Amino acid sequence: MALHDAHNPDMKIPKTVRHLVLILGDQLDRESSAFVDFDPKQDAVLMIEAREESTHVWSHKIRTALFLSAMRHFAKDLEDRGWPVIYRQLDKEADVSLADGLQAVIKTYSPQAVIAVEPGDWRVRQQLDDTMHLIAFRADSVPANSINRLKKSMQWLPDTHFLCDLSEFRQWAGKSTTLRMEFFYRVMRKKHHILMAGKKGSAEPEGGQWNFDADNRKSFGKSGPQGVPAVREYKHDAITQDVIKLVNKQFADHPGNLDTFNWPVTREQALQALDDFIKLRLPFFGPHQDAMWTHLDFGWHSLLSSSLNLKLLHPLEVIQAAEKCYRSGKVDLPSAEGFIRQILGWREFMRGVYFLDMPQLAKDNFYDHQNALPKWYWTGNTQMNCMKNSIEQTLQNGYSHHIQRLMITGMFGVTAQIKPQALCDWYLAVYVDAVEWVELPNTAGMALFANGGRFTSKPYVASGAYVKRMSNYCQGCAYSPEVRTGQDACPMTVLYWNFLDVHEKEFAGNPRTALMVKNLQRMTDDERKALRARAKEMLSDLDGL
After folding, report:
1. 166-357: what fold?
2. pLDDT band at 333 (very low <50, low <70, confident <90, very high)
3. CA-CA to 29 of 20 to 30 Å: which in 10, 67, 176, 177?
4. DSSP H or E run through 516
5. Mean pLDDT within 331-336
6. Which of 63-72, 215-224, 301-310 shows the lowest mean pLDDT across its residues?
């Protein structure tokens, strides 16, 4: 692969660049709106491997390798079309930031305009806007004859990958202080005629109800998961092998290990992953989608989120594939609906909330939690078996499924009073599918309740009894999920009851949490006193749990 860079005299870049089209690492969309008016005789694509994108949070090696490999494959795909690509590599141009690479290329090629699709990260948008503003007023940044042309030339285009554009979401949200995904989801179902009964225009959902979540909460039982399909393995071509070597060298001290790297890095591989899921796992996805088990890394989950978030797959093609599987009788409605809701509902809703509520969302701390992130979030070295398994799986694969994120690592975060920003940075760092537009609202808003219930009606908290019911993690654990005091007391249980104790008045007034408080109030004064004492000990030494 011959990746072009700004110093390659043999590359076929137009002498006078009309449009410099900047493609970010999570915008690998062949049908991108940035390409609508692209003319390879006049325009050039710019892609930048910036070190900062792996260091502004301490990114997992697998996450970095996935982005870089997918970017390099996408660049090759464009070059194979005959399109001129300026590709700035981490180990050659060594740009610290995206802004560094953009400024260097503008200075060399003096484009008439820079075109880009709106980023999925508020930080990146602000950085690039600031860069273009700086260029417009610094004569030494670009040739003098291009300054005036660049003053108003940063053209942000809408991201047509999504099924609800941001203006549409803002209109739907209006001035409401609370938002609920379920109502948004119904609007999207009708708009795109997904799982609707009858002909297009019908307002009735398939099966007579919108949501089959109640059918999708089964545990595995004592026998555990049975007949779990193997995950497809993707061969590492020369591009991916080079990236693995690069990441191991450049980010040697970062978490994770690339020996287990196995994620789609091309459109073709992403389509294979989609086909595998629809045929092998979707028919069994629904009932146990919230269940967990030791060493069950993937189960029947789709493993499509990274490909969707890189834009290697379009959400509508994924949704339609699942619906087609249901219509053909190969999967039941609860499984199809439960999966489709995650994409058509939560995914689109999270993006809308992110751009509606930023930058405040990144600062929110409703409970004013200030505890530091325990060190074992980066190692898995904790006596809590549920946390140990979930974190070790995350460090090994750069992945854990949604219930492990929400009801294990996330739930502990809120009851352990961890500062939301610290845990949000961890989620952004360790997961291959983490882009801030989807990671931050899920973590800060849903898992940690940091925005005070903007789109959730209650904090997602539970005791160790929930973990025991939905997994086998409690077997052989150093702690007992039923115990609330003493050295054997489960931290999940102790901190849950302590959380209710601290917020008793607030929870008593919420219909969705009132029953929790009634159970708390059954404790005697001595029991509550002992509970508070044990919780205080745990909260003072989270690293020791």
Report:
1. 1.25.40
2. very high
3. 10
4. helix 514-520
5. 95
6. 215-224
pLDDT at 267 over 60: yes
Residue 200, pLDDT score? 80
Tens digits of residue pLDDT in 421-469:
999 999 999 999 999 999 999 999 999 999 999 999 999 999 999 999 9
Judge if the upstream peptide bond of residue 359 is cis by omega within 30 degrees of 0: yes
- Report whether 71 contacts 47 (CB < 8 A): yes
At 362, list the tokens: 């990144």
Rounded-to-integer distance, Cα 529 and Cα 240, Å: 57
pLDDT digits over 13-50, tens only? 877 799 999 999 999 999 999 999 999 999 999 999 99
- Return d(Cα 185, Cα 205) in angstroms, integer: 11
Is the distance from CB of 53 to CB of 98 less than 8 angstroms?
yes
Gyration radius of the chain's alpha carbons: 25
Q: What angle do CA 212, 214, 215 make, to 5 degrees?
A: 70
Residues 20, 105 contacting (CB under 8 angstroms): yes
pLDDT at 137 over 60: no
Nearest to 245 by CA among 235, 236, 234, 255: 236
Predicted model pTM? 0.93
Tell me, letter by letter, the H, E, C secondary structure of 398-449: CCCCHHHHHHHHHHHHHHCCECHHHHHHHHHHHCCCCCHHHHHHHHHHHHCC
Domain ranges of the chain: 19-119+121-157, 166-357, 375-544
CA max distance for the chain: 81
Superfamily holding 375-544: DNA Cyclobutane Dipyrimidine Photolyase, subunit A, domain 3 (1.10.579.10)
Question: What is the average per-residue pLDDT within 284-310?
Answer: 94
pLDDT of residue 454: 94
What is residue 266's DSSP assignment?
S
* Angle between the N-to-C axes of helices 491-502 and 525-540, in degrees from 0 to 180, rounded to the nearest 10: 110
Count of Cβ atoms closer than 10 Å to residue 541 Cβ: 9
Tokens of 150: 């660049």
DSSP class per residue in 335-389? HHHHHHIIIIIIIHHHHHHHHHHTTGGGT--TT---BPPPGGGGT---S-HHHHH
Q: Do domains 19-119+121-157 and 166-357 have the same CATH topology?
A: no
For 2, other C-beta atoms within 10 Å of its C-beta total 11
CA 220 to chain centre: 26
Contacts of 408 (CB under 8 A, 6+ apart): 292, 386, 387, 390, 467
Other Cβ atoms within 10 Å of 246 Cβ, number = 19
